[in-house]
Every structure is written in structure tokens, then in C-alpha cells.
Specification:
two-stranded antiparallel sheet, about 150 residues, 5 helices, elongated, mainly alpha
């Protein structure tokens, strides 16, 4: 496979994961703060893929930037998985120890629902969405690196 094709596959994978996240959100699975963090590196990988496809920039540096973006979301997915499984503590802003405000705030129906980062919204074949994100994203790192190592 050529470098541009590998880069397209990896960027397309990030597009598919991000689209899937938005689909789950549309059907009622609200994202937590850490879920939102994981979306940004996918957006960066998609942008890199668009630059490669639309701009014809197929140099190694773009492939390594794509690998960096995929690695970032993969690492965030591992961190989020650890928080969900109580392997380590997560940010206090979205875990069980987070600040929930005053009692009046808890009774309010006006604000958005607080989605906790240490609670799994949905299990898919025994893994959370954060776990699946980590697995696929680390696979995309491999594809981006394969692209970088290909001759132009």
C-alpha cells in the first residue's frame, strides 16, 4: 500500500470513531468530560488526513503528526478505562469525588445532566467505549507509522 492510502485509512478510522461517538450521543448516551477530551485528537487526525488528500501533502512529517494524534487519543482512552475500572483516580471534576455544588443545584432541572467519567454508559462485548477507542486508536498509530516508513 502507498503512503497516502495508509494515511487515508488511518484518518478514515478516526473519522469512523468520531462519527460513532456522535451517533451514540444522538441516541442518548451523553459523553463525559474525558470522552470529549478523546474526540479532539481524532479531529486532528481527520484534519491531517484532509490535508494529505486535498493538499497532496504526503510527507513523513504528516504521517508522524497523525501518529501523534492517534497516540494522544489512545492514551486518553487507556487513562479513561483505568478511571472506569478503578485502577486509578480520575479528575475530580467528573468522578465520584467531584464537586457537585450546593443542594439547591442538585434539585435544579435547568442545567445539563452531570455525566460521571468513572461510570460506564454502555458495555460493548465487555469493553467500554473508552477501551474500544484506545484499542482502535493504537491500531491507527501503527498504520500512521507504517505510512511514515513507506517510501513516497
Amino acid at each position: 500500500m502507498t503512503r497516502p492510502l495508509l494515511m487515508l485509512i488511518a484518518a478514515g478510522g478516526s473519522f469512523a470513531l468520531l462519527a460513532g461517538a456522535f451517533l451514540f450521543q444522538a441516541i442518548g448516551y451523553a459523553p463525559c468530560e474525558m470522552c470529549l477530551w478523546q474526540r479532539w485528537p481524532h479531529a486532528a487526525a481527520i484534519l491531517i488526513g484532509a490535508i494529505v488528500i486535498l493538499g497532496g501533502f504526503t510527507g513523513r512529517v504528516w504521517a508522524y503528526l497523525g501518529a501523534l494524534a492517534a497516540a494522544a487519543t489512545g492514551i486518553l482512552g487507556i487513562y479513561h478505562t483505568g478511571v472506569e475500572r478503578d485502577w486509578w483516580e480520575g479528575p475530580t471534576s467528573c468522578t465520584g469525588g467531584g464537586d457537585l455544588g450546593t443542594g439547591a443545584d442538585l434539585l435544579s432541572m435547568d442545567g445539563p445532566a452531570l455525566v460521571m467519567c468513572d461510570q460506564v454508559a454502555i458495555w460493548i462485548f465487555g469493553l467500554s467505549m473508552a477501551s474500544w477507542n484506545a484499542i482502535f486508536s493504537l491500531g491507527f498509530v501503527v498504520i500512521w507509522i507504517m505510512a511514515a516508513r513507506r517510501k513516497a
